[in-house]
Write a structure and sequence with these properties.
By secondary structure, this protein is α/β, with parallel strands linked by helices. Helix content is 46%, strand content 14%.
Length: 278
């Protein structure tokens, strides 16, 4: 649906780009002509993804190990990237979540979600923003959020808080950085099943699944999200700033997606807590 060179000349960093939706977006960006950098904590996985993309698409792809929860590590990564050339696009994709009764959350468990989802996105955004401003370079920050920013979401409260905070950052920086040629945009995906998220959010014992409750009767396809992301970071979306696009088939209009968990018994939750500790 896009011109093959839609993203030609763009250098793009995707956090958490080694698997799932991050890898799907990364593949589409390279197909559309971008130079790609993926970062995350598992270098072996990142290298596998990068090698596969180089083989399949013949694009320029680099993998960097970086724990975005560490601000100093983020700064070091950005210095490394900028030694070759500035980035043009940052995609804040890395995040963490799991279902839990909020009263049972330890400080450590809450921080395990807030650190990559909120702090990591903020660290990366501020790191690219200051470099773009200093170099008078135009740029785009795309953050992958959640419809919990609209509805709230029981049993994933730290994630809902973090995603809502990143949406506030997106709206705030659109005003502050827009005059400097920097756009900030976001996507709120609905159900786009991935191995990692499904394991954390849809353990055995939940209901029939999100497709049954979706007005369209299905879940999203990774390519659909990748295409929307490609459009939003492209010059064709140059007049979209500070906005979050919801891509969920209308699911959030029916509920937050957590209502079935209100019916769980304490036995269900005890089994879930034990599974997380194992």
């Amino acid at each position: 649906m896009f011109e093959k060179g839609l993203l030609a000349g763009k250098r793009i960093l995707v956090t958490g780009g080694g698997s799932g939706l991050g890898a799907a977006m990364a593949r589409r960006f390279v197909e559309l002509g971008a130079e790609l950098i993926v970062c995350g904590r598992r270098l072996e996985l990142l290298e596998q993804t990068a090698a596969q993309l180089r083989d399949d698409v013949a694009g320029k792809v680099r993998a960097i190990r970086c724990d975005i929860r560490d601000g100093a590590a983020v700064e070091a990564m950005m210095d490394d990237i900028w030694r070759e050339a500035p980035l043009d696009v940052l995609v804040n994709n890395a995040a963490a979540t799991f279902i839990a009764q909020s009263e049972h959350l330890s400080f450590r468990a809450a921080d395990a979600i807030l650190a990559p989802t909120l702090h990591g996105a903020m660290y990366c955004t501020l790191a690219v923003g200051k470099r773009w401003i200093e170099g008078k370079h135009r740029g785009v920050v795309l953050s992958i959020l959640s419809t919990s920013t609209i509805t709230g979401r029981a049993f994933t409260v730290p994630s809902a808080m973090a995603k809502s905070a990143v949406l506030a950052m997106t709206k705030s920086l659109a005003v502050e950085w827009g005059p400097k040629g920097i756009r900030t945009v976001a996507i709120a995906p609905g159900p786009f099943p991935t191995a990692g998220a499904t394991g954390q959010l849809r353990p055995e014992g939940r209901d029939e699944g999100p497709a049954a409750r979706n007005p369209l009767g299905r879940v999203g396809e990774h390519g659909e999200l990748a295409n929307l992301a490609s459009f939003l970071i492209s010059d064709q979306a140059g007049y979209i700033n500070g906005e979050m696009v919801v891509q969920d088939g209308g699911a959030h209009l029916r509920g937050s997606g957590a209502e079935d968990l209100l019916q769980w018994t304490e036995a269900h939750w005890e089994k879930q807590r034990a599974a997380r500790k194992s």
